[in-house]
Predict the 3D structure of the following.
Amino acid sequence: MHTPPASVAQGVDVVVIGAGPFGLAMSHALSQRSIRHVVLERGEVGEAWRSERWETLRLLTPNWMTQLPGQGYSGNDPGGYMSAAELVAFLSAYARKIAAPVHTATTVLQVRKLASGYLVHTDRGDWPCRALVLASGAYRRPLVPAFASALPSTIQQVTAQAYRRPSQLDAGGVLVVGASATGLQLAQEIHHSGRPVTLATGEHVRMPRLYRGRDIQWWMHASGLLDQRIDDVDDPARVRHLPSPQLVGTPERATLDLNLLQQQGVQVVGRLAGIRDGRALFSGSLRNVCALADLKMNRLLDGLDAWAEREGLAAGLPPPDRPAATEVAASPVLSLDLQHIRTVLWATGLRPDHSWLALPVFDRHGELMHQGGVVTGAPGVYALGLPFMRRRKSSFIHGAGDDVRELVVHLAAHLDRARTARRQAQQQAA
């Protein structure tokens, strides 16, 4: 892995942006086809996992699912959950194994169209290329609502991306906004640090960590749910924006949900709807939101039970053990005096950041337009790692292999067409 001299234009067939799991998987596929390429990374391999995760974070998927083309988990704890540092080590070893041409400490500043492809302008030189792969991650830009500016200046605001440990927060009450996997984990960790925590809860996806003695991810994988393709979904736009499931990876393989947090002393309230006159205002729909999450969880478990029966597996498994319904107070809290809050932690999700992409590839909402990772409006541009991009597992590390295997075929065909067109143009000119 090396970095090119600054300000030197170098041409390759393909530039891959991002040396995380998806960029490295694509590098492996390109090398197998002898396609000249480079992988540009703003930091080091797996940079987001090095510098944008809290200290106690562990993957939501068991170790046996951490696999990339040509490399699987080789440790002695397949049912455990990797820390961020362990994943970085896994990715670094993979980059060395496949001899990925990674150029580190190279920040992409702009990508623009050329007559014969694209020009990737970086702070360390320019890279003309014929095809481009966007593998910079689906989770880069924190989503913070506009009304955050109405919070009193005395309240510390921290995004989940910037959070590392409870000690960085001011002493006193904490309002955690967002009840997906990140919000629940951070609410519990901060509460255990001795700070009073209120958790603002919107739409969420509830799942048990274990079901009938097996990890829920085993069920999702074995039943084929994670292989479900986007073409088989009624509302692709909606499923691509669903929150991450309420899961946590711990040695105890414990389930973390709103019931447990409330038992431990976390105050659960509805979705944060606004800030007015020094008060946080919450939606009154908490009961309905929780009932819907419970309903969808039980439908999922019903489907898994039915699959186990069809496959003849049910007899060898413990009986169904459904989590209790989410408890909601009869009179939910609708507002909170912010005098009791010293920190607001935004666990409201992340979105891709393609602000450097000077191409007509965004819809009216600013989202990247693509069909299964083939970017619309820019021939030869591809994306990887986006939620439900081609399959339900597209944003999972182990989902990279299947998506890359299909996209590299499309990419290679694009390069072949470009070469043919170039030869024909040269013949006509001669």
In short: The longest helix spans residues 400-429.
